[in-house]
Design a protein that fits this description.
globular, five-stranded parallel beta sheet, Ribose 5-phosphate Isomerase B, Chain: A, alpha/beta
């Protein structure tokens, strides 16, 4: 499975812990930065890179990490076709995939430790979407906006 990963300076350590886990789990991983600690960088940059890559590569997934995960979630969700879900435990990751076909997982470096992060990622990537009519209808409505990127 193709997975695009990004983080700001606050999520850099967690991202670097997560990438070997993803590779060892058999996923094809592309690290979209940040690559070094740069205090005060903007969460927007990795979120935009990951959202665009996921949109350009149907069937792929994105993972974004910042301090709270709120900023990267908001930024990624600005893009048509991106469904980013901020998950702090496995059950929310499971529901994000089953019910909402989330294609980008966002997590907080501040609140989610390394082991829990790996558990959440595994659940997210292993869970299939329940392709029910009502779920598809609701997901399609997510892109009903006045303007697109």
């Amino acid at each position: 499975m193709q997975v695009f990963v990004g983080a700001d300076y606050r999520g850099l350590e967690r991202k670097n812990q997560l990438i070997p886990f993803l590779i060892d789990s058999g996923h094809q991983v592309e690290d979209l930065g940040d690559y070094e600690y740069n205090e005060g960088d903007d969460f927007n940059d990795p979120a935009i890179k990951v959202a665009l890559k996921v949109r350009e590569n149907p069937g792929s997934f994105g993972i974004l990490i910042c301090d709270s995960a709120h900023g990267v979630t908001m930024q990624a969700n600005r893009f048509k076709g991106i469904r980013a879900a901020n998950c702090a435990f496995s059950e929310s990751a499971k529901l994000a995939r089953e019910h909402d076909d989330a294609n980008v997982l966002t997590m907080s470096a501040h609140f989610v430790d390394e082991n829990l992060m790996k558990e959440i990622v595994k659940t997210f990537l292993d869970t299939k979407f329940e392709n029910l009519e009502r779920r598809v209808r609701r997901i399609n409505r997510l892109d009903e906006r006045e303007d697109y990127d």
